[in-house]
Amino acid sequence: MAPPIYLDHAATTPVRSEVLEAMTPFFGARFGNPSSVHRFGRDARTALDEARSRVAACLHAQPDEIVFTSGGTEGDNLAIIGPWRMRRAQGRNAVVTSPTEHKAVLEVVHQIAREGGEERLLAVTADGVIDLRSLDGIVDEQVAVCSVMWINNEIGVVQDIPAIGARARAVGALMHTDAVQAFGKIPIDVTRLPVDLLCLSGHKIGAPKGIGAMYLRRGTPFEPLFHGGSQDRGRRPGTENVAFAVGLAVAAELQLVERERECARLGAMRDALQAAILARVPDAVIHGARVQRAPHILNLSVPGTDSESLLMALDLAGIAASGGSACQSGSVSPSHVLSAMGVSRGLAGAAVRLSVGMLSTDADIARVSDVFPALVEKARRLAGAA
Amino acid sequence: MPGRRVLVAMSGGVDSSVAAALLHEQGYEIIGATMKLFCHGEDLPDRPCCSLDSVNDARRVCQQLGVPHYVLNLESAFGRDVVQDFVDEYSRGRTPIPCVRCNTFTKFRDLARKAEALECDWIATGHYARAHDGDMYRGRDHAKDQTYFLWGVERHVVARLLLPVGAQTKAETRAIAHRLGLEVIAEKTESQDICFVPDGDHLKIIRRELGDDAPALQRGPFVLQDGTAVGEHDGYARFTVGQRKGVPGGFAAPMFVVAIEPETRSVVLGPRAALLGRGLVARGMRWMCAAPLGVGDRVSVQHRHRATPVAAEIVRIDGDEIELALDAPLSAITPGQSMVLYDGERLLGGGFIESGSSAPRRLSLPVLV
């Protein structure tokens, strides 16, 4: 059998060799604790500070505006709960988000509601973009934080963060964006962006799982969620993961250097795959196709199929894809994102996400262009016969 | 010659793990699948049969065998076909048997569909039952036999079924698990209760689905068979035919629940003799054997899990309703439970018990068996 094809880069990516190489000394000779006073500590501290500066530079931020986290979920928790806890006392008890967010945001907002805060949801259109008119009456002086994901992780649609952020800040709300999928795809310059908090994750860009960063604009009210040390200015106590921070810095820089060319390459592959599938499965529904979409994500539903069976068949054929949001058990549930867009239960239950990335080649696309429609045709024959 | 690809339903327990491992050893191409039947909400503690740990155990066994493993999400079908029916049956004063409905409408039906989609030639499970040429037989270990729960599986599915542990005893299964290095799995405790019922308390599920004010959970009278009220109970869903626990005392002889009448929320009591029935009516009859039987045919009938079967004669068939005359009386023929028909070891079919009756056996033509 041919080697398996990985089309799930939106889920995670392998650690790049350059990243691994940069991290290696910190698992060996440069093992020090950055908080120690001695030379081992100083050496680690130097590396950590440099990593922080380099990550900051990737966002045009100041080094002290970068907080290292364990990844996207922790970043979203910190970036929403942290400011809300400070601002609820000032009469800003509401948190605004959209129903198509990652669970790391939605569940946080639900938790805030359980803790006495107010949850407000924006409206999304059938294409999955936020209906900017819905900001009226939702984003007001009671809002502590407004949180909107820049690129949706399931369907890849791009939200108008500059416009939403400007509206939020006009009424004194803080703006947070989950940029986990956006980093490396959209240029980010926080000096020009109406955003106060922004999160990214290492393992989506060739760094290891377990590292991420939160941008926290200077002067943003923030109450830490963890307590117990002065690391990261007390904003995120705990001995820093120096190796992974260094890895994140290298991966982030590589993403920016390669961004334009890689985005063009990924977009071309995604478009070729989409065209090939539509040519043989003309009634396939491409989610988010009518609006601006990230270059690496293709999310589609084929009427008369179900994602669970299709994903299994793809896997057995050596193609790794994913469905909606996978739960801990690994079972597939209909996507809350597609449901929020008004996609019917049947179509939402058929959704498959194919995401290209660093491992993808034209040969992969050619094979998937062939295998995917064949599997769909077989699934439909069976469904028709049943 | 049929192919060798088999979809194995794996619960994470010893039986299905050994089934997968045995088939793998025999050269089959294994695809493991664990069915997720309900969500692990906060009100449900980990269950031996459906918990996340079980999914992980099944996945680990597959990893050890070097075969793919998937989780099949059957939550909505299970909720609709099994849990909903479960509470409805209690509301109707009956005692449901959700495992049969799960096997009939959820598990095997979906497995067959997935097997089809994945071009599997066979379906395998860890049930203690045997399948040959489209017929199903009791498991060799009669103490573990599970055919009572399998009568609703369709014959075309049985024809594709591999049941490797059905030909051995539980002790042998455990020994094989050790031999194959499935140490963690080998000594897992068995699931006994209904998987989705926390702590064996079915009232919790009824309360959750129907609310605290469900009639089956309200006070009602205990009555004797002649209608005399003799006390009050806290909800007829707490009772099943044949039950003695929770029944008032003070009678000359021990009293048992002999019937439940939801219209008046009455729980009817009677002496042990009143539990005996010589006739049995069932609905939803399905035949698993190649040719359905008819009136006058002799069968062996089992009316409860682990009950000893008795000989009987089919005296009436109306659509999917069947009536049997029993050679010997059965105790506590309980509406909602399954009655399963056998010819010796071979499973003929089954249905859901509608009622028992003390009616004498209908006079019929001489039986030439």
What is the topological layout?
The complex is a heterodimer of chains A (386) and B (369).
Chain A: E1 5-6, H1 17-23, H2 39-58, E2 66-69, H3 72-87, E3 94-97, H4 103-114, E4 118-121, E5 143-147, H5 161-170, E6 174-178, E7 197-201, E8 212-216, H6 242-280, E9 285-286, E10 297-301, H7 307-316, E11 319-320, H8 336-340, H9 345-348, E12 351-355, H10 362-385
Parallel strand pairs in A: 1-11, 3-4, 3-5, 5-6, 6-7
Antiparallel strand pairs in A: 2-8, 7-8, 9-10, 10-12
Helix pairs in contact in A: 1-6, 2-6, 3-4, 6-10, 7-10
Chain B: E1 5-9, H1 14-25, E2 29-36, H2 52-65, E3 69-73, H3 75-91, H4 98-117, E4 122-124, E5 129-132, E6 135-138, H5 155-158, E7 161-162, H6 170-179, H7 183-186, H8 202-210, E8 220-224, E9 229-233, E10 255-261, E11 266-271, E12 276-287, E13 298-302, E14 310-318, E15 321-331, E16 338-343, E17 346-357
Parallel strand pairs in B: 1-2, 1-4, 2-3, 4-7, 8-11
Antiparallel strand pairs in B: 5-6, 8-9, 10-11, 12-15, 12-17, 13-14, 13-16, 14-15, 16-17
Biggest β-sheet: strands ordered side by side in the sheet of chain A: 2-8-7-6-5-3-4
The 3D shape of chain B can be described as globular
Q: Note the main sheet of chain B.
A: 6 strands, antiparallel, barrel
Averaged pLDDT of chain A, please? 95
Order of helices and strands of chain A: EHHEHEHEEHEEEHEEHEHHEH
> Which spans of chain B have pLDDT < 50 for at least 5 consecutive residues?
42-49, 363-369
Which radius of gyration of chain A do the C-alpha atoms yield?
21 Å
> What is the count of DSSP helices of chain B, taking H or I runs of 4+ residues?
8
Shape of chain A: globular
Side by side, the strands of the main sheet of chain B go 12-15-14-13-16-17
